[in-house]
Amino acid sequence: MAKSSWADGLTGGGAVRPKPIDQLPLIPTIRPSAQPPIVLDERLRGTRFVALTPKRVLNPPSATGMDYWSLNPYVGCEFGCSYCYARYTHRYVVERAHDAGKLTDAEFADYRGAHGWEAFEKRIFVKEHVVGALEADLKRVPLGECIVIGTATDPYQPAERRFRVTRAVLQRLTRCEGLSFGIITKSPLIARDCDLLLRLQERNELQIHISLITHDAALARKLEARSPVPAARLRALGKLVDAGVNAGLIIAPVLPGITDDVAQLDVLFAAAQRAGARFLHAGPLRLYPAIRDRFLPVLGEHFPDLVPKYSRAYAGHGYAPRDYAKALSRRIEKLRKKHGFKNQSAMFDRYRPAKMPVQGELELRGSLP
To answer: Can you tell me the distance from the alpha carbon of 48 to that of 74, in angstroms, rounded to the nearest whole number?
Structure first.
């Protein structure tokens, strides 16, 4: 089957805030009815993997508003975390293609989903021939700059077992020198690539962030539909550290009234310490408008009393109220000192906005340590 794509020219998603639609270009040259999207695979549960051939894969800071470059080997993520802030990247791709007349109404309905978020989890775009685009993009990255892999979708989600796009990216990046790299993932599959990660950090800085919001497997399943169990992620963290890779834990997002109590956080800090984590970072939930349609119904199903508090606290903005964020920061800092983690700066500290909302009803669970 020919490997062409209706989404040629897609720039890699990775911003933490929505960009205007005109900055996510789709440049197909034929109507989808004449040449439909190339379906690479389809799971029994309905997840479909569709080919993309991007012209660019690195997003510069000027496009994302962050102070590092970002790269995402996939658009959409099968893990289906209800709080994921990156759903808009998938939605904008599909909606813009439809607005431009490149998708029929039927194709648009399939690739968007009834509520605009379903397809993010079940229509995964696989960036094929990524190394060629990456080769060209790297020429634009100055020495000493930071590139973060996995800012919008997990680079080690289930699709990676078959398509190995992330591994191909790492193989090319091992030829770089004098850059700083970060990788964010929930998947133990990252341990597969220990050989490349070790080579990468020989001539560059590297931080691997294993993402975990709770040690409670039952709670994780409620909030992250198909993500790996906490124990598997912690084992992967231990494997990376034992191999000599600079890896740590990121507890993000911390969910107000759900995972922010001292007992739960203390268990995570202790587990990270046992796994040998070199660092630990944590931050509160960002609830952007694009997330609410997915997250609030899940919150209503499992924690109905919190829905009105969240709705008021996050009304008109995506960040947790300032007083709550400060209280959580104090709690995290005390736990950090208790478990012997240094207060290191990292790319995630730069997510913090200069001004955060003051009003809100969110309170930390339990008393401050």
So the answer is: 13
